[in-house]
Amino acid sequence: MIADRISILIVDDEVGMRETLSDILEDMGYHVAIAADGYEAIEKVKDNYFDVILMDVKMPGMDGVDTLREIKRISPETAVVMMTAYAADDRLRDAMSEGAYGVLYKPLDMQKMVRLVEGVRVGGHILVVDKDPKVHDVFKGILEPRGYRVSNARTSKEAVRVARENKHDCLYKPLAVEEVVRLVDRICHTRHQKGRHDENDGLHSV
Question: Stretch 73-79: mean pLDDT, rounded?
Answer without folding.
Answer: 90
